């Protein structure tokens, strides 16, 4: 939940006769009341008449009129506590440290985060200021935000008292600044560093004038005047070594926010922090990280054109050597604005990489496509960490929810660009090699891989009649194959793999088909792996070809990958997923799907054009 304050509750406490009630009455009536009750009734000020535009409740406490248990309850409910003292009563000043501030800690805890304002009333009765005697108190009690001297009789600084009380709640000092060290807190430095990296669009460790003005527009809805920008740089140069290098460096950026707070302009820093999703405890809010998106049964989630464009820009930003691949260091830098690295070593065997295992642009986009399909909420969360919201209103513009698959079948066309394929087969039939083959890796290369880093998923683009589609292969665990629920079984196409050299391997494929797929509308392809070897007779009542013929399946697709990967099988799987309504069309011959290619190509091109027009989504840059 967000900890943004939706309203402010101000509690006034202090010794008797210091003028707590008079302060409230003077604020409300704008004149001094000669006759004052023991306690003012609770007052609510509407948002439209307060400086910070939040509803504000002002609560008076009177020891004469109320019991101590009521005081403790009010202290716990208060957003900010004003301790009122009289500037002409030395006892009331002494009791700030001997009674009131310790009592607050006793009630709320030594480490409580409720801000405190010290309010010196009755300045009209003396020419002597008490602020010098109050400063040591502020140093000893970090919860004290500020001190304001005022007069209920002359109305001097009355509105300022309640303005600073509001400000202490909405723009608190404690989370962002350490007054003892006179510097930003570690949490504030971390948050502002993330913000700097997001705003440094070209990754040169400097905010250029153009980047600063974009930052100003996003956070404050107005650019800086060129002279004002030069004045800001001049201040940074005078105070910070290496704070300016043409533009403002991270060191200079942190200095400016330190200066804002020291000058009492907390709202400037807090406006920036809240624009980038931070709450009062400098945690990213749930609303910022995880906006709600409904995905109906039968629908899937894909990235939109806006999503892909953002990710391509991010890749280009961190591909420092411009080689089209992300080295481990470049990948770490890309995710430096995230709390943890979201991708483990298995990602190198899930998507396309170079010979060193560095992820290519295609592989990087494919991994994001995979995450969006399998774990939409995680994709949305990490888009927020990476700064998508800085350039767009919400991460939801990066996500497209596809229509229910049932509608696709009824309308005999699909707008989906990502297809999920379950791969099932008995032990040692070559499923791992089949998955890696999608990444154009042959068996000799697969033999060199660390099996501990292998993934149960691979994903790559496959052309279906001139259109790039993503095909995701998922190797279903052998034990899970026997007990899949309808939800777990859901996919766009199924692939049942047997080993032509193992006479007992086809029986598993036949059993899985009869158990899971015979009565459903999921297209199914049987793949004969290790096809470079002579095929032995299977210990099953029907040969694989006879089985396929009986159940109107395409003939077994032969697959080999010792040296060159037979990529046709992946094209066929993607085509079957794209056109599930013509499930029986591919039955007669392995080449039948080529014979209908012209008609389907026209339909595909037309359907894809319509999809782009309706959904403003396009195939990502390759």
From TrEMBL:
<dbReference type="GO" id="GO:0005509">
    <property type="term" value="F:calcium ion binding"/>
</dbReference>
<dbReference type="InterPro" id="IPR002048">
    <property type="entry name" value="EF_hand_dom"/>
</dbReference>
<dbReference type="InterPro" id="IPR018247">
    <property type="entry name" value="EF_Hand_1_Ca_BS"/>
</dbReference>
<keyword id="KW-0472">Membrane</keyword>
<keyword id="KW-0479">Metal-binding</keyword>
<dbReference type="GO" id="GO:0005741">
    <property type="term" value="C:mitochondrial outer membrane"/>
</dbReference>
<keyword id="KW-0812">Transmembrane</keyword>
<dbReference type="InterPro" id="IPR001806">
    <property type="entry name" value="Small_GTPase"/>
</dbReference>
<dbReference type="InterPro" id="IPR027417">
    <property type="entry name" value="P-loop_NTPase"/>
</dbReference>
<dbReference type="InterPro" id="IPR052266">
    <property type="entry name" value="Miro-EF-hand_domain"/>
</dbReference>
<dbReference type="InterPro" id="IPR021181">
    <property type="entry name" value="Miro"/>
</dbReference>
<comment type="function">
    <text>Atypical mitochondrial nucleoside-triphosphatase (NTPase) involved in mitochondrial trafficking. Probably involved in control of anterograde transport of mitochondria and their subcellular distribution. Can hydrolyze GTP, ATP and UTP.</text>
</comment>
<dbReference type="GO" id="GO:0007005">
    <property type="term" value="P:mitochondrion organization"/>
</dbReference>
<dbReference type="InterPro" id="IPR020860">
    <property type="entry name" value="MIRO_dom"/>
</dbReference>
<dbReference type="InterPro" id="IPR013566">
    <property type="entry name" value="EF_hand_assoc_1"/>
</dbReference>
<feature type="transmembrane region" description="Helical">
    <location>
        <begin position="593"/>
        <end position="614"/>
    </location>
</feature>
<keyword id="KW-0106">Calcium</keyword>
<keyword id="KW-1133">Transmembrane helix</keyword>
<keyword id="KW-0496">Mitochondrion</keyword>
<feature type="domain" description="Miro">
    <location>
        <begin position="5"/>
        <end position="171"/>
    </location>
</feature>
<dbReference type="Pfam" id="PF00071">
    <property type="entry name" value="Ras"/>
</dbReference>
<dbReference type="GO" id="GO:0005525">
    <property type="term" value="F:GTP binding"/>
</dbReference>
<dbReference type="Pfam" id="PF08355">
    <property type="entry name" value="EF_assoc_1"/>
</dbReference>
<dbReference type="Pfam" id="PF13405">
    <property type="entry name" value="EF-hand_6"/>
</dbReference>
<keyword id="KW-0547">Nucleotide-binding</keyword>
<keyword id="KW-0378">Hydrolase</keyword>
<comment type="similarity">
    <text>Belongs to the mitochondrial Rho GTPase family.</text>
</comment>
<comment type="function">
    <text>Mitochondrial GTPase involved in mitochondrial trafficking. Probably involved in control of anterograde transport of mitochondria and their subcellular distribution.</text>
</comment>
<feature type="domain" description="Miro">
    <location>
        <begin position="416"/>
        <end position="579"/>
    </location>
</feature>
<comment type="subunit">
    <text>Homodimer.</text>
</comment>
<keyword id="KW-0342">GTP-binding</keyword>
<dbReference type="GO" id="GO:0003924">
    <property type="term" value="F:GTPase activity"/>
</dbReference>
<dbReference type="Pfam" id="PF08356">
    <property type="entry name" value="EF_assoc_2"/>
</dbReference>
<keyword id="KW-0677">Repeat</keyword>
<dbReference type="InterPro" id="IPR011992">
    <property type="entry name" value="EF-hand-dom_pair"/>
</dbReference>
<dbReference type="InterPro" id="IPR013567">
    <property type="entry name" value="EF_hand_assoc_2"/>
</dbReference>
<protein>
    <recommendedName>
        <fullName>Mitochondrial Rho GTPase</fullName>
        <ecNumber>3.6.5.-</ecNumber>
    </recommendedName>
</protein>
<feature type="domain" description="EF-hand">
    <location>
        <begin position="306"/>
        <end position="341"/>
    </location>
</feature>
<keyword id="KW-1000">Mitochondrion outer membrane</keyword>
